[in-house]
Amino acid sequence: MIVKNRARSEKILGRSFVSKFCHSRDRAFRLKMKTIEKAMPNAKTHLIVGAATGALVNVDLQLKRMDADINARFDWGELAVCAFAASAAALLPDLLEPATTPNHRQFCHSVAMAAIVTYAITGRHTKNISPGDLALLTVIGMGYLSHLAADATTPSCISII
């Protein structure tokens, strides 16, 4: 359809005018797509944001533990494990819904999924979980939420459902 319209336009308006117009329109479209691709966080960005989120959550948890117990010491190994776990969890949405197109975001990239993950790490059922397991669950959940937060800052945003 586009080829027929372009051929007809070339006959009426002249080949050079149509070629310049189509070329500038294609160039503008490519530029827009490059801008969108640059705005979309890639795996490296999600890893960094996830690791930072996991580290911050772990520092908060350890400082609270140190306030409660004077003899408690800061555990750097726990910090590394939490940063790694959160960075792995930050990749999970794109593993569940691969980014084949800029509009790949569906349920795993939605506000509804963010609500489910938030409930999973803060709901009433978490009172029966040991403190160590709860800390790991919180770090993993926050890593997943960091991915959604990073994607929410892009032009395509995230969907509600």
Question: Overview of this structure, please?
Answer:
The protein is an all-alpha fold and about 160 residues long. The chain folds into two domains: about 1-35, no CATH class; about 40-150, no CATH class. Helices cover about 75% and strands about 0% of the residues. It contains six helices and no strands. Helix 1 (about 1-15) packs across helix 2, helix 3 runs antiparallel to helix 4 (about 75-95) and helix 3 (about 45-70) runs antiparallel to helix 6 (about 130-150). The radius of gyration is 24 Å and the shape is elongated. The protein starts with a helix and ends in a 9-residue tail after the last helix.
Number of helices: 6
Helix content: over 70%
Give the tally of β-strands.
0
Low-confidence stretches: none
Give the overall pLDDT as a whole number.
Answer: 82
* Biggest sheet character: none
State the domain count.
Answer: 2
Percent strand: under 5%
Q: What is the C-alpha radius of gyration, as a whole number of Å?
A: 24 Å
Helix/sheet category: mainly alpha
**Could you give the distance between the termini?**
35 Å
Q: What's the shape? A: elongated
The SSE order reads HHHHHH
